[in-house]
Structure prediction request, 187 residues.
Amino acid sequence: MKLLNQSIKYVSFSILAIVTIWAGIFYFNMLNEIKSSIDEGLENYKRIIIQNSQQDTTLLSKNYFDESFFTIQRIEKEKALSVKDRYLDTVLYMQDADDDKPEAEPVRMLITAFELNGKFYELKVANSMVEEDDLIKELLNDTIWLYISLIVGIVFINNFVLKKLWKPFYDFLSQLKKYRLGITQSL
Prediction:
């Protein structure tokens, strides 16, 4: 059954190439979707913070990311008018329950400006993001399992289903090997 083994070999290499390309595209699409979702949340936080600062002016003196996820600083009118909403990936030092001391954690940050009672402010809103190295590890792990599952499935199909499909062909080849011109009556 050499033909069967050859087909498994070619299909395995083809699937490896396809799954590798798929994993790369899937990773970038997933990362883009995660960032888009976080950006929508940051936009919502921005609106809520601006609304709350109209009622509670103590928020306008919030200069550090100490106990919350935003900072507000007063800026000049010219700078405020030149600011456009910017989203960027950065790190902030945060401490989880399992950390002894704050660690650099990846965040997505929105930097914007707004006007309130004739004064201009710069608002920075941050939201935790998926760590890309963790995402890559999980995607690699899942891709390996996907590849193994596909190969096992293909080997199963080749050995059980295609064997039956190729049986008449191999029977015919066997008859051809035994056929002797002028001696064998029929195929």
